[in-house]
Amino acid sequence: MPDCLFCKIIAGDIPSGKVYEDEDVYAFKDIHPKAPTHVLVIPKQHVATLSDCDDPALIGMLMDRVRKIADEVLNLAAGYRVVINVREGGGQEVFHLHAHILGGKKLPF
Ligand code: 5GP
Ligand code: ZN
């Protein structure tokens, strides 16, 4: 998607702090971290929001990679939070589906 910030990050047109990449997802550090560890996991396929995604396999794949990245790359054995903001009312600012992984401290709820 030409005007999508996260598609440009996947393509390498905008620099990012990559922590993981495979054929399906790209994961990188959030530029304004809300916790000691704050990583965004995005599918390489452009999907604007979770509500726009009617592909259970893609959603399942994304959650599987979140789990693996949190445990095996970020070493968040103590635990972590996964957040997906959906549309403006949910706080979504970038309209390319992404899961936030937050951890590295005890998170209040
Ligand atoms: P949203 O509010 O859409 O769920 O989350 C978007 C996130 O992307 C925000 O936490 C914001 O800090 C992050 N972000 C926005 N622009 C950039 C950028 O250019 N690089 C990186 N690494 N993160 C970004
Ligand atoms: Zn995109």
Care to describe what's here?
This protein is an alpha+beta fold and 109 residues long. The chain has a single domain, classed as HIT-like (HIT family, subunit A). It has 2 helices and 5 strands; from the N terminus they run αβββαββ. It has helices at 5-11, 56-73, and strands spanning 18-21, 25-29, 37-43, 80-83, 99-103. The chain has a 5-stranded antiparallel beta sheet, with helices on one face. Strand 2 and strand 3 (37-43) form a beta hairpin. It is globular. The mean pLDDT is 97. The structure holds guanosine-5'-monophosphate and zinc ion. Guanosine-5'-monophosphate binds next to strand 2.
Task: Give short descriptive properties of this protein.
5-stranded antiparallel β-sheet, binds zinc ion, single chain, HIT family, subunit A, 109 residues, 23% helix, binds guanosine-5'-monophosphate, alpha+beta
Q: What's the structural blueprint in terms of helices and strands?
A:
Layout: H1 5-11, E1 18-21, E2 25-29, E3 37-43, H2 56-73, E4 80-83, E5 99-103
Antiparallel strand pairs: 1-2, 2-3, 3-5, 4-5
Bound molecules: guanosine-5'-monophosphate and zinc ion (ZN).
What's the architecture, going by CATH?
A: 2-Layer Sandwich
Order of helices and strands: HEEEHEE
CATH class: Alpha Beta
Helix content: 10-25%
The bound ligands are: guanosine-5'-monophosphate, zinc ion
Domain module tally = 1
CA-to-CA gap between the ends?
A: 35 Å
Question: Could you tell me the strand content as a percent range?
Answer: 15-25%
Any idea what the CATH superfamily is called? HIT-like
Q: Could you give a short account of the major beta sheet?
A: 5 strands, antiparallel
Quickly give the structural class.
alpha+beta
